[in-house]
Amino acid sequence: MAASTVAIQGKYRPSHGKNRRLKMAAELIPFGAIVMINAAGYVANATDTAGCKTLGVALETVDNSGGSAGDLEILCDIGGAEVQVAHEVGSLTIANVGDAVVLELNNEVSDVATSTNDIAAGSIIEVVDATTIWVALPQYA
Fold this sequence. Notes:
- By secondary structure, the chain is mostly beta strands.
- The chain folds into two domains: 12-77, no CATH class; 82-136, no CATH class.
- It has strands at 12-13, 19-23, 28-29, 34-37, 43-45, 53-58, 62-63, 73-77, 82-87, 100-105, 108-111, 120-129, 132-136.
- The strands form three sheets. Strands 9-11-10-12-13 form a five-stranded mixed barrel.
């Protein structure tokens, strides 16, 4: 699967918690994407990249791909949102509820110990089918 470059509709449950406008990396981030803080401190699309931390969910689409990091800001839900994402490994069952998952892409997670950097994404709270799950993202602190 490829990272999403368009708004991800209907796959986000708000935290009713903290929303913050933060400076973003020089890239396009679509609404509903899982976002992270990159090693430089900017909001970026979630990927399996060393030195990054899961942040939350983008609440708008912002294109800073033609600018420099920090030129634009993006509104993010950093209060512990829930997102529906693909699971890279697949073959999931209800027995996987509660399992930890790690970042893969802005719309995909994987099992712990199957990705290169194992950046914590949260835990499985619902299994829709073998390859689609709802994940509770950690509350940003």
